[in-house]
Specification:
Elements lengths: L10 H25 L5 H27 L6 H19 L6 H27 L6 H18 L1 E6 L2 E6 L12 E5 L13 H19 L2 H11 L1 H6 L4 H24 L9 H4 L1 H14 L4 H17 L7 H17 L1 H45 L1
Antiparallel strand pairs: 1-2, 1-3
Length: 381
C-alpha cells in the first residue's frame, strides 16, 4: 500500500486535505461535546446556522474570489432555495415518510431552482463588463423577497388555489392547507436539518468547488479574472465560463437556503432573513476569510456567527466589541505589515521545525551507531 507522501504533494492538494481534515476534526469534537453534555443548548442551536452561512460563503467566494465578479444578492438565491425546498417538503412529506430521503430530494429541488435562477440572471448580465452583476443581483434579492410576500398558494380537496396580494380571495375548505401564506411565509415545516447534514453538505460543496478550481474550466475562470482580454485572445469563451461559475455559485447558495429553511418551523421572506443585510454579511465572511480561500470563509463564518451570541451578556458593548473584532480581522488579513509579519512567523516556524527534525534524525543516527558499536564490541569479546 502506497504511503501518503505530503512532501511530494502540490501545495494546493495539501491545502485541500487540511481543509477537509479541519472540518471533520471539528465535527468529531463538537459531536463528542454534545454526547458528553458539555455544550449548551444555545450553542447547539447555532450549529446549523453556522453550517448554513459557511455553505453560502463558499458559494459566494467562488463568484467573488475566483470569478472576480461582485454579487451582493446571494441572499436572494438562498431565499429561492429555502422557499422552493420548503414548498416541495409540504407537498411530499405525506408521500415520502423517510425523512433522510425527503431531505435529499428537496435539497436537489432547492439547489436546482436556485441554479436555474442564477443561469437566467447570468445570461444577459455576464456578457457585460463592469459592476452590472452587483446591481442586478441586489435587485433580484429584493424582487424575489417582495414577490414571495404577496404570493398565496393553498391546497384542499378541490386542488390548488393561487392569489396575488389578496389572500382572502382564496376560499379554503375545512381540510385545506396554506402552502405559501404571503408575508406569513411557509409554516409547519418539518425539522429535517441537522449538524451532521450541514457538515456533509459543507464537505460536498468543498469537493465541488475544489474540483472545479483545479480543473481546466477552473483555470479558464481564473484566467478571465486575471486578464479578460488575454483570455479572450487565446480563445476562451468568456460568457460560457463566467456563466458556469456563477450558476454553481448560485446553486451552492440555494443549498444553504435549503438547510436554513428546514431548521425552522416557519420561514418568512423578511429583510432580517433574506434581505440586503444578509447578503452584505455573507460578503463580509468572504472578505474577512480571504477572497479565494474557502477555508478562510468557513472560519470567518463560524467566528462571526458565534461572536454576537458569546458577547450577548455584554448587552451595552456587544456590537462595539463585534465591530472592533471585524476591524482587527480585516487588518490582520489584508494590511501589508500584517501580511509581512505572518510570512516572517511562518518562515521562522518552518525553519525551526526543519531544524528540529534534522536534530531528531541526527540523534537517532548517533544512537543507532552507538548501539551498533556496542554490539560489535560484544561480538568481538
Amino acid at each position: 500500500m502506497a504511503k501518503l507522501n505530503l512532501k511530494s504533494m502540490k501545495k494546493s492538494t495539501k491545502d485541500h486535505i487540511i481543509t477537509f481534515a479541519m472540518v471533520i476534526v471539528v465535527y468529531i469534537i463538537v459531536q463528542t461535546m454534545i454526547t458528553t453534555g458539555n455544550m449548551s443548548s444555545l450553542m447547539q442551536g447555532l450549529l446549523v446556522p453556522m453550517c448554513t452561512y459557511s455553505i453560502v460563503a463558499i458559494g459566494l467566494n467562488l463568484c467573488v474570489g475566483y470569478l472576480g465578479e461582485l454579487s451582493i444578492g446571494h441572499a436572494g438565491f438562498m431565499c429561492v432555495g429555502a422557499f422552493s425546498s420548503a414548498f416541495a417538503t409540504k407537498l411530499l412529506q405525506d408521500v415520502i415518510p423517510n425523512q433522510i430521503l425527503l431531505f435529499i430530494i428537496v435539497l436537489i429541488i432547492g439547489t436546482a431552482v436556485a441554479a436555474f435562477f442564477g443561469f437566467l440572471i447570468g445570461i444577459p448580465v455576464l456578457r457585460l463588463r463592469g459592476d452590472y452583476l452587483a446591481i442586478v443581483t441586489l435587485a433580484f434579492g429584493e424582487i424575489i423577497k417582495n414577490v414571495i410576500n404577496v404570493l398565496y398558494i393553498a391546497k384542499d380537496t378541490d386542488g390548488f388555489h393561487f392569489a396575488i396580494s389578496n389572500g382572502n380571495a382564496i376560499k379554503l375548505s375545512d381540510e385545506g392547507e396554506w402552502l405559501i401564506n404571503g408575508a406569513k411565509g411557509i409554516a409547519k415545516i418539518p425539522h429535517l436539518s441537522s449538524f451532521t447534514a450541514g457538515v456533509i453538505m459543507i464537505l460536498i460543496c468543498l469537493f465541488i468547488v475544489y474540483h472545479l478550481v483545479n480543473s481546466r474550466s477552473g483555470r479558464a475562470i481564473m484566467a478571465i479574472r486575471d486578464n479578460r482580454i488575454a483570455a479572450e485572445s487565446v480563445g476562451i469563451n468568456i460568457t460560457k465560463f463566467k456563466l458556469m461559475a456563477f450558476t454553481i455559485s448560485a446553486a451552492i447558495a440555494g443549498a444553504g437556503g435549503v438547510l436554513y429553511a428546514h431548521n425552522l418551523s416557519t420561514v418568512t421572506a423578511t429583510p432580517a432573513n433574506f434581505g440586503y443585510n444578509m447578503s452584505i454579511m455573507i460578503l463580509v465572511f468572504v472578505v474577512l476569510g480571504g477572497m479565494g480561500s474557502f477555508r478562510g470563509s468557513i472560519i470567518a463564518a463560524v467566528i462571526l456567527t458565534l461572536l454576537p451570541e458569546v458577547l450577548r451578556g455584554l448587552s451595552d458593548y456587544r456590537m462595539l466589541i463585534y465591530s472592533i473584532v471585524l476591524i482587527a480581522m480585516m487588518l490582520f488579513n489584508w494590511a501589508p505589515k500584517c501580511i509581512e509579519f505572518r510570512q516572517r512567523v511562518a518562515a521562522k516556524l518552518k525553519k525551526n521545525t526543519k531544524q528540529r527534525v534534522q536534530n531528531m534524525q541526527f540523534e537517532a543516527h548517533r544512537t543507532k551507531q552507538k548501539d551498533s558499536t556496542q554490539i560489535n564490541s560484544q561480538t568481538f569479546q
